[in-house]
Amino acid sequence: MAEAVVRIEGLRKTFVDLEVIRGVDLDVHKAEVVVICGRSGSGKSTLLRCVNFLEEPTAGTIEVAGMKLGPGLPTRTRRDQIRALRMHAGMVFQDFQLFPHMTAIGNVMEGPVTVKKMEKEEARSQAMRYLEQVGLADKAEQHPIRLSGGQKQRVAIARALAMEPDVILFDEPTSALDPELTGEVLAVMKSLSTDFHKTMMVVTHEMAFAREVADRVIFFHNGVILEEGPPDEIFAAPQFDETKRFFQAVL
């Protein structure tokens, strides 16, 4: 089996007195696509946000591309460690999070220029390659307000790719899109797996995508991994009633 790009051990996350993640262990291997599904409020998005420390874990450790971190005080050293870890874990949000005052290519260039200190001409050339990859080279000079939701999300994917991360985290990337725009985003995500062999963790309700693209489907329930397996196995013969009811509702 390929090396683990992401290794989660004993992860717990508590908000005030509510424990949202309750002791999760998970490895994600190089070039693997892991789809995480479950009911709203099950903790799946919080799990994803803990991987790149948008949420601070309460307990346990996160390791990405060999960089291992657990809970800690917000010292300068720790902030530097988190910043370094995030360079290996790209994030695509459900609401795009594009800079509205920047063009599409400006959004894609921003991380390499600001974080990696890449020369602007090199960053621009790289950004154009990634915009071409997501089918938006002709929209490079457009601002987000002039783009459709699907186009905005594809720019967001190009922005994540521009940092050349070891894993890309997708937090319900199509949930804010109209159905006719969902397909274009899922097609790009499928291409990232089949053509470019990217390692991906995807929180989504798009079970057709999971069936076609995922190497492993994880059913998250009440802050724990209740069940996991290859798509064909977990869809055809779920072991728990909670999983069966969920798939009956979404398939």
List its traits.
alpha/beta; globular; 251 residues; six-stranded mixed sheet
Topology:
Elements: E1 4-15, E2 18-29, E3 33-37, H1 44-51, E4 59-64, E5 67-69, H2 76-86, E6 89-92, H3 104-114, H4 120-133, H5 149-162, E7 167-171, H6 179-194, E8 200-203, H7 207-213, E9 216-221, E10 224-229, H8 231-236, H9 241-250
Parallel strand pairs: 3-8, 3-9, 6-7, 7-8
Antiparallel strand pairs: 1-2, 1-4, 4-5, 9-10
Helix pairs in contact: 3-4, 3-5, 4-5, 5-6
Model description:
The chain is of the alpha/beta class. Helix content is 39%, strand content 25%. The protein contains 9 helices and 10 strands. It has helices at 44-51, 76-86, 104-114, 120-133, 149-162, 179-194, 207-213, 231-236, 241-250, and strands at residues 4-15, 18-29, 33-37, 59-64, 67-69, 89-92, 167-171, 200-203, 216-221, 224-229. The strands form 2 sheets. Strands 6-7-8-3-9-10 form a 6-stranded mixed β-sheet, with helices on both faces. Strand 9 and strand 10 (224-229) form a beta hairpin. The longest helix has 16 residues, at 179-194. The chain starts with a strand and ends with a helix. The model has no long low-confidence stretch (mean pLDDT 95).
